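User: Predict Phosphopantothenoylcysteine synthetase/decarboxylase's structure from this.
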Amino acid sequence: MGAEPATRGVLYVIACGAPAAADVHHLVPLAQAAGWQVHVVTTPMGERFVNVPELDRLTGDRVRSAYRMPGEPKGLPPADAVIVAPATFNTINKWAGGIADTFAVGLLCEVMGFGVPILAVPLLKAPLARHVAFARNVACLEEMGVRVLFDPDAPPESRMPSWERIMQELRSVVRERHSRE
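Assistant:
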């Protein structure tokens, strides 16, 4: 197996409103070191958890959390892959149901239609993980080709995998998608 290419393409990192979003700035350099051009999108609540100025600096682009207004230029290049981490109960359920009431969920619904490899990493409390809608919607997203990295039986402090583990899983998702093409 050869070395990884210098440029892997455009990676959207979508962060939702959960405590792990405060550390998403650790994921950006890992993705960049793997050759990705990173663009960060947050849900409205996710924006409250992340360090927007730091992410702007790291990516060289602004963090987006709202739909653009008519007449504003399109700002995101097409994605080659997407990481949704942390993905909340609300985002998983709205995304699977096609309820695009936030820019982040609308973007996820749209990129699925282009066949872009997507890795979702839910982070939620155990009672929410046991909700029938969550399990059904995770299965729905998986049916649509989304890789979901989630262990409902993991202890609370271990539910969110490391950013390094997430990058390993992304490599696997992208490799599998490209082998099918």
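Helices lie at 27-33, 52-59, 89-97, 103-113, 126-129, 132-143, 163-180.
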